[in-house]
Amino acid sequence: MVCKLRITFSQAVDGFMLEKQAQQRSRHTLGDYSNSFRHFAQYLEEDAYLDEITPQVIRRFLKYLGETPIAAAGAAPRPAAPLSKKSILNVHTALSSLWSWAVREGYAERHVVRQVPRPRPEKRAIVPYTRQDVKAMLGVCEESLPYTRAGQEGITHSRATGLRDEAIVRLLLDTGMRASELCRLTVGDVDLANQRAKVFGKGARERLLPFGRRTVKALWRYLVTRPDAAGEEPLFLAYGEEDVGMTRDGLRKLMARLARRAGVATKGNVHRFRHTFAVNFLRNGGDAYTLQMLLGHSTMDMVRRYLAIVQADVENVHKRASPVDNWRL
Question: Which residue of 22, 43, 150, 297 has the fewest C-beta atoms within 10 A of its own C-beta?
Answer without folding.
Answer: 150
